[in-house]
Amino acid sequence: MRRLLAFVLAVAVGMLAAPVPAQAAGTPPQIYGAWHCSDDACIWGTVRTVAEFDSKNHWLIDRGDGRPSVNLVVLSFVEPLKLLHQTTDTATLNGVPRGMTPEIVNYFTSRGVRVMLSIGGITYTDEWDAALAENGTLLGQRAAAVATQLGVGIEIDYEQNSNPNLSQLQNFITAYRAVHPYNAAGTDPTARLTIDTAAGDRWLIDINRKATADWLRTDTPVLDYANAMVPARQPSTSSAIANWQEHLDGKPTYSPPVLPLAPAKFTGGLYVAEGSKVRPECTNFAGSLQNSTGSWLTAAAPNGAGTTAGLLGYMFWAAEKPSTRGVTTQPPNTCEGGMGAGATFYAIPIPMPALRQS
Fold first, then answer.
1. Which first-to-last residue range defines the signal peptide (predicted)?
2. Global pTM exceeds 0.85
3. Residues 73-110 pLDDT 10s
């Protein structure tokens, strides 16, 4: 009996002394970027001088100490049907908005800020459908040519929630990658090809399912990463985290299921200004969602995909004037105190480093 008690005691002591598995270490954000809508509600329809552009956007390249507030700017939006047809009109030159000039690209890249062009947006969903139906391969080739011309990456923002044309979207991606192959080192800006998904897994389901299963895998990556876009309105801390957790978990009960997405394969989106309100995300980092969600975002653990903890970072909607009504991030509503302070707090690397691959 004594031997039995001694054995039980020894086992119990051993269990108490056994090391506790360490939690996944937090990973600082690698991406801290802004979608940019120019001064005409995302049309980019006029050529702007660098001096005039700087007067309204200087905070993006200077958080107050000479360092940029972001390491990525996504110029939004290119209209896909005009790009396919290489349209020239009052707002467009050979399919590209006239305001998306080499000078504006250089305004950012000369400060170490990566630049991409976003094709689509919710306004151009029908145009995406029409362009893909006409020739997804040629659209991908045209996008690749613009990337080469301007030295930028491309973002796919195809917001078709009902029966998206996935076969032609695959053709678009295949054609683009034939010109600009996947570049894990991130050394070729034209090779950066990303896609936008919904804030969580319950909208744009077909696109999200396809992207997660075939394009955002860590073993055979095709796209660099996805952006979990902003929801209909600025979320609370808990609802933002719940949305992003859906991507990590997937939807195993859906038919067919949506697979889990690796934390290293997506960013979380937040509003920087919304409607008539300037958000703390712009002006007050201490009261912002990029502050209150930060401990979760940097430590979010894989749940079926990927091996490293932490999302890639944050994207903010949107710089300057995203709508014809409401506030802008033009002076006096500049964002050094929100996004700029956040860039300092998280020690955002500028220029953007090679992104985690798993």
1. 1-24
2. yes
3. 999 999 999 999 999 999 999 999 999 999 999 999 99
185: its two tokens: 């080192």
Q: Would you state the structure tokens that stand for residue 308, as one six-digit string?
A: 């490293």
**What stretch of H or E contains 341?**
helix 341-345
Q: Is residue 18 part of a domain?
A: no
Torsion 238-321-267-143 (CA) sign: positive
**At 238, which CATH number?**
3.20.20.80
Q: What is the total residue count of the chain?
A: 358
Cα Rg of the chain, angstroms: 22
Distance of CA 164 to the CA centre of its chain: 20
Considering the domain boundaries, does residue 10 fall inside one?
Answer: no
Buried b vs exposed e over 89-127: b needs ≥16 C-beta within 10 Å? eebbbebbbbbbbeebbebbbebebbbbbbbbbeebbeb
Q: Please give the structure tokens belonging to residue 121.
A: 């947006």
Q: Is 354 contained in some domain?
A: no
Tracing tokens 């056994």 back to the chain, one arrives at 18
Write down the residue that tokens 């702007």 correspond to: 48
Number of domains in the chain: 1
Domain enclosing residue 207, as ranges: 26-345
- Specify the 3-state DSSP secondary structure of 155: strand
Rounded Cα distance, 335 and 317, in Å:
12
In the predicted model, residues of the chain with pLDDT beneath 50 are 1-25
Longest dimension (CA), the chain: 94
